[in-house]
Specification:
- The complex is a heterodimer of chains A (188) and B (529).
- Chain A has helices at 7-30, 49-67, 80-115, 121-124, 130-151, 156-173, and strands at residues 36-39, 42-45.
- With 188 residues, chain A is mainly alpha-helical.
- Chain A has two domains: 7-67; 80-173, no CATH class.
- Chain A starts with 6 loop residues before the first helix and ends in a 15-residue tail after the last helix.
- Chain B has one domain (3-247, 263-528).
- A two-stranded antiparallel sheet of chain B has the order 1-2.
- The longest helix of chain B has 37 residues, at 124-160.
- Chain B is globular.
- The chains are: A mainly alpha (188), B mainly alpha (529).
- At the A-B interface, helix 1, strand 2, helix 2, helix 3 and helix 5 of A face helix 3, helix 9, helix 11, helix 18 and helix 19 of B.
Chain lengths: 188, 529
């Protein structure tokens, strides 16, 4: 937290600009009915009114920051380190979920290649062991990856914890319930 | 149907509902079992730094819904579990605060000021007993106030507030929440505006889903669970991980102080602590009844009031507040625990959630169906049974069961939870992240929901980084649809009067208050700066 930070001013101006864009660009271009419309000779509130109210909240909040709170002493800002952290975390999550999504189908394709079979993953998505492949691998990478990110090094302990945690989650979410599908088996 | 009939039906719904098992031929209802399970989980979660009641509620909700389904019979077990978590987490938060100087929940921070010095003096068990007794007392008082006040408030709302007034009341609630949560009313308004904008994407009455950029993904809007869990839970996990990542610190060895001296809580102690507990219970209940203020402010106010009384009345040999005074623990714990029951007053009587725990209660009710918290549930119909009113009295019964558990086994279980502090946060948070995302997936069964949740998580992370409270966002997201429906009906009912929010005196007062509360709150930071 820096005392000379102008984050309130920047945030306030950003909100004002965003609110004006919502009011004068997004709502007119992406809402079919206006603020008020006439249906069967009666006026009713259109779909544009509620988002306009939301934009007015944003506009007043932004103006409040610019006018009343721009000189506040305590103005936390988004640091480069924070951006670096969230970028790295999101990259890791993206990779983990991509692995979670495609491991099962790839494993089935590989098996098909070896056995000259033509089975689809979709048909196997609720059968053992196929249904666990993606979740177990992707989930383990997600947990172990985040632990490694914080510790700054890959540890056996982190990996074991990740494997055990994923196993426990399978025990919690999958084994007791027939109607629950672990990711990504609900929409493959 | 008389009032007493409804109360009796509510009690019966809990005790004679679906049976879990029987002991010596005596059936044990599943609802009672779920309250017990929720209460124990709540204490564990509260005693774990980095976790809080809402995290446990978020993770358990899809499991509970899968286990109990969407029938009316599911409502009491699921809501009973969540109420148990809410109450357990409140007392659990005091454990690491007293034993390790680390508050398990934010509202337990003031407990560290006197609890940890008592531990250092070898009085840890006594400090935990004081925290438990005060917490249970404040909680019970708050529940009694809820049960007495909520029906009357709801009846008044139904009798005197028409559609324009209800619309104005929603606007007042949103303004009030924006103004009081966090230190900045402007940031509160931004958080509220973002929440409203998010809920209006992909919805509306026209065939074209508004603000959807013509895409399929946005055409159905954002799932409520994605928005709530993303901003509240995933955002908090990202922030916690970032702090650990920046500090690169690992948990060090915890110094163990041996207990010494008398650890029991005597009648004399209770007599001495009672004025502090009573005063804090009133403060916490009053604050809890107002949406959005929360238990941290209640704890701070309770502590401050207790401190001034202690200064006047204490003997020279007694420790001051902040140096290990039992009265400090009592004042804090009674205040923060008495918020939880009173927080349900706006939920049940107005349908307006006041804190994160209440948000999850509403989410559960909306997911299961058959129970819509708001003034309509308190219709004491005579000719036929109002099932929602039976559920309300069932909920009150579960709260008293949770209180009974708190008084009986809560203290013992709480004192055994010191071990939870030993779980390192950098291991816990990634596990919580995957648990929460899995919970979302099993509920929504599509990967897009995980994408939305992560996007809301990033939003929650940046909001926390910029000191914008995410709670107004979540409450606005939940109330946005009700606000729009109410405004549409009011506009139609008044024959398209554009000034429908200003024609009736009550609505006008609410609207003036909406503006007034923002102006009043805005003056404060200006004066400070």
């Amino acid at each position: 937290m820096r005392k000379d930070s102008h984050s309130n001013l920047i945030l306030g101006l950003s909100c004002v600009v965003f609110a004006l864009l919502v009011l004068f660009l997004w709502i007119p271009l992406d809402v079919e009915t206006g603020f008020v419309e006439k249906v069967r000779r009666k006026y009713i509130i259109g779909d544009g009114m509620a988002p306009a109210v939301a934009a007015i909240f944003l506009l007043i909040g932004g103006l409040g920051l610019v006018i009343f709170e721009r000189r506040n002493a305590d103005q936390p800002a988004i640091s480069k380190a924070a951006l670096k952290f969230i970028g790295a975390a999101l990259a890791l999550l993206f990779v983990s979920f991509a692995i979670m999504r495609y491991t099962g189908p790839l494993a089935v394709s590989a098996t098909n290649f070896l056995t000259n079979d033509v089975t689809e993953y979709r048909l196997l998505r609720d059968t053992v062991p196929w249904k666990y492949l993606g979740y177990a691998l992707g989930g383990t990478i997600l947990i172990a990856g985040l632990i490694t990110m914080i510790e700054g090094k890959i540890t056996r302990k982190g990996l074991i914890i990740a494997v055990l945690a994923v196993l426990v989650m399978i025990l919690i979410y999958d084994l007791p319930f027939e109607d629950l599908l672990l990711p990504p088996n609900g929409d493959v | 149907m008389e009032v007493l009939d409804y109360i009796w039906l509510g009690v019966q719904a809990v005790f004679l509902g679906p049976e879990a098992f029987s002991v010596l031929g005596l059936p044990i209802s599943i609802t009672i079992l779920m309250v017990l399970a929720g209460f124990l989980v709540g204490i564990m979660v509260g005693a774990t730094p980095g976790l809080a009641g809402p995290v446990a509620m978020a993770i358990s909700l899809p499991i509970l819904i899968s286990a109990f389904g969407y029938s009316e019979d599911a409502l009491l077990p699921v809501l009973g579990f969540l109420i148990g978590v809410m109450k357990g987490a409140t007392i659990g938060g005091a454990v690491p605060a007293i034993l390790f100087n680390t508050p398990g929940t934010p509202d337990a921070y003031m407990t560290t000021l006197d609890g940890y010095p008592m531990t250092q003096r070898g009085q840890a068990k006594k400090a935990l007993r004081i925290a438990h007794f005060s917490s249970a007392s404040g909680d019970t008082f708050s529940d009694v106030v809820l049960i007495v006040c909520a029906p009357f408030l709801a009846i008044i709302v139904e009798a005197y507030l028409d559609l324009p007034e209800k619309t104005a009341l929603f606007i007042l609630s949103l303004s009030f929440i924006a103004a009081v949560i966090g230190g900045s009313p402007a940031k509160g308004l931004i958080s509220t505006g973002l929440g409203l904008l998010a809920v209006y994407i992909g919805t509306g009455e026209d065939f074209y889903p508004r603000l959807s950029f013509g895409t399929e993904q946005l055409a159905s809007g954002f799932p409520i669970a994605s928005a709530v869990l993303g901003v509240l839970v995933i955002g908090a996990v990202f922030k916690g991980l970032e702090e650990l990542w920046l500090e690169k610190r690992t948990s060090g060895n915890i110094a163990v102080v041996q207990d010494s001296g008398d650890q029991r809580l005597h009648v004399g102690d209770i007599k001495r602590l009672f004025p502090f507990i009573a005063r804090s219970a009133f403060v916490g209940t009053a604050i809890g009844a107002l949406p959005g203020i929360g238990s941290t402010l209640a704890a701070t106010l309770g502590y401050t009031l207790g401190k001034s009384r202690h200064k006047k009345n204490k003997e020279d040999s007694d420790p001051n507040f902040g140096e290990g005074a039992p009265e400090g623990i009592a004042a804090t714990e009674a205040a923060n625990s008495s918020v939880s029951g009173a927080n349900l007053i706006p939920v049940l009587s107005l349908g307006i959630p006041g804190n994160a725990a209440a948000v999850f209660l509403i989410l559960a009710a909306e997911s299961i169906g058959g129970f819509n918290p708001g003034p309509a549930v308190f219709k004491f119909t005579v000719d036929e049974v109002n099932p929602e009113l039976v559920i309300v009295f069932g909920l009150f019964t579960t709260m008293f069961i949770a209180n009974g558990l708190n008084w009986t086994i809560g203290g013992i279980f709480m004192r055994s939870m010191g071990i939870m502090i030993r779980i390192p946060k950098h291991i816990l948070l990634p596990i919580v992240l995957l648990l929460a995302l899995t919970a979302i997936y099993v509920q929504e069964t599509n990967m897009a929901a995980i994408g939305f949740t992560l996007a809301f998580g990033v939003l929650g992370y940046f909001m926390r980084t910029l000191a914008i409270s995410p709670l107004p966002f979540v409450i606005a997201f939940i109330l946005g649809d009700k606000l729009e429906q109410s405004a549409r009906q009011a506009f139609a009912a008044t024959g398209g009067d554009p000034f429908f929010l200003f024609t009736s005196p009550v609505a006008l007062v609410f609207m003036l208050l909406s503006v007034g509360v923002i102006i009043y709150a805005t003056r404060k930071p200006k004066a400070n700066s």
